[in-house]
Design a protein that fits this description.
alpha+beta; Muramoyl-pentapeptide Carboxypeptidase, domain 2; 2 domains; five-stranded mixed beta sheet; two-stranded antiparallel ribbon; 7 strands; binds zinc ion; Peptidoglycan-binding domain 1 protein; VanY-like_core_dom; Peptidoglycan-bd-like; PGBD-like_sf; peptidase activity
């Protein structure tokens, strides 16, 4: 386990496990707060986390449609963990980072900012669709300033506080969304790979009593999408779902045991 304070890799991709947990937790606190942007006509680098707040995605969609070409994005959303990593690199003079705000203070933490290639080519399409250029000192950076943009700082901090408290019941943090010393010092000790045992999907299978839940519903829809005949997506793991899982596993040359663990989830595109 690598703690955030000990990460030596320069790419923010090294905190992706923790990032994913933070994003999932934020969307649990406020459903659909963050939405994926990789469905748009964009090219994203590996380290780019493809999420923005919903109003910013609309802002982006309009601008891309206005210019009618693909946008190359170098940075979009940064969780407070990714921002902490950049801030540490800046403070210690590593990785060529010459400026970085503390977590929560960058507009990238608000999921309403982008850094892009060809910033001047995009300027008129962006500025006529709710984006504002930051300035020539940060020439790739634009912020969506649409009226529907909300401040998500508190929720992003709260998500971390909740994850920390779930994972360390003996060292709980107040769930107040306040990025004070108690929270910032613990962020340094968060595991870059994510908190172990938190948010790991349960194994789905035929049990007595039957498993019921949104995760079963998602499984059923994924099976249907994979071309498996399943007559009802009723969120109940019954014998029909069991057979459908086995049919899918057989088609994929997997062990047809009807148990949906990580391997089957991956094959279904669920993780
Ligand atoms: Zn930027």
């Amino acid at each position: 386990m690598t703690l955030l304070k000990d990460v030596t890799d320069c790419s923010t991709y090294s905190v992706r496990g923790l990032d994913n947990q933070l994003i999932a937790q934020m969307n649990k606190i406020r459903p659909n707060l963050l939405v994926r942007i990789d469905s748009l006509n964009v090219e994203l680098g590996q380290a780019v986390h493809p999420w923005m707040q919903a109003a910013a995605k609309k802002c982006l969609e309009r601008a891309i449609a206005a210019r009618g070409q693909q946008m190359i994005i170098n940075s979009a959303y940064r969780t407070i963990a990714a921002q902490m990593l950049l801030f540490l690199q800046y403070k210690t003079g590593r990785c060529g980072i010459t400026a970085a705000s503390p977590p929560g203070n960058s507009n990238h933490n608000n999921a309403s900012a982008i850094d892009i290639e060809d910033p001047y080519g995009w300027r008129s399409a962006l500025e006529s669709n709710g984006w504002r250029k930051l300035g020539d000192w940060d020439r790739m950076h634009y912020d969506c300033v649409d009226n529907n943009i909300q401040s998500i700082k508190e929720i992003s901090v709260q998500a971390f506080q909740q994850l920390w408290s779930m994972s360390r019941p003996n060292d709980k943090l107040a769930d107040d969304g306040d990025y004070g010393p108690a929270t910032s010092s613990r962020l340094l000790y968060a595991p870059a790979e994510g908190f172990p045992g938190v948010g790991i999907p349960r194994v789905l299978k035929l049990t007595e009593p039957l498993q019921i839940g949104n995760d079963v519903g998602e499984l059923q829809l994924a099976l249907r999408k994979a071309g498996i005949d399943i007559d009802k997506a009723d969120k109940v793991f019954g014998t029909g779902t069991d057979l459908a899982v086995k049919e899918f596993q057989t088609a994929k040359n997997m062990v047809a045991d009807g148990i949906v663990g990580s391997g089957t989830r991956k094959a279904l595109g669920l993780e």
